[in-house]
Amino acid sequence: MSQDARFEDASEAPLRLVAFDDEDLQVISALVQDSVLQGADIQWRPRERRLAFLLNRLRHEDVAAARAAGRPVERVRTVLTIEGAQHVASQGFDRDDTDTVLSVLSIAFEPGDLPAGDVIVTLAGDGAIRARVEAIEVALRDVTRPYLAPSGHVPDHGVDL
């Protein structure tokens, strides 16, 4: 009998996931919540129709195990790509300030003429990035080994996970 992956099954193995529908995108959104990046870590490639982010992702899939073992939480460098992007817009931050530190809150899909719509990356501080897409195709790929989170703690959003 096959079974969905569980957070408890986490290891240091890199994650490689692709979302093709809203349900898949919710999984990726949960995994990239609390990721941090700088403006320079965002690349819009209109000819390739790709919007890419290099994130310092909090390893949510390992937080419970880290707490149970009394060890610090970890982050990992992750590439997040939004494929088939036809147009990209942003608000709430200066795209020319490449040193600005941004924090990802969520990723969501706002349907248009299906399967097209907008993938919206919501950032802390009322920032957002909107990518008009032909269809949902969002990929997450860890590209480094996990490392200790510099802050040593998990951000608190007032919700027990």
Describe this entry's structure for a reader.
This protein has one domain. The chain has two helices and eleven strands; from the N terminus they run E-H-E-E-E-H-E-E-E-E-E-E-E. It has helices spanning 22-32, 60-69, and strands at 16-19, 36-38, 42-45, 50-58, 74-83, 85-91, 101-111, 117-123, 127-133, 138-142, 147-148. The strands form two sheets. Strands 1, 3, 4, 5, 10 and 11 form a six-stranded antiparallel β-sheet that branches. It has a five-stranded antiparallel β-sheet with strand order 2-7-8-9-6. Strand 3 and strand 4 (50-58) form a beta hairpin. It holds the Pfam family DUF2948. This is DUF2948 domain-containing protein.
What key phrases describe this protein's structure?
mainly beta, six-stranded antiparallel sheet, five-stranded antiparallel sheet, 2 helices, 13% helix, DUF2948, DUF2948 domain-containing protein
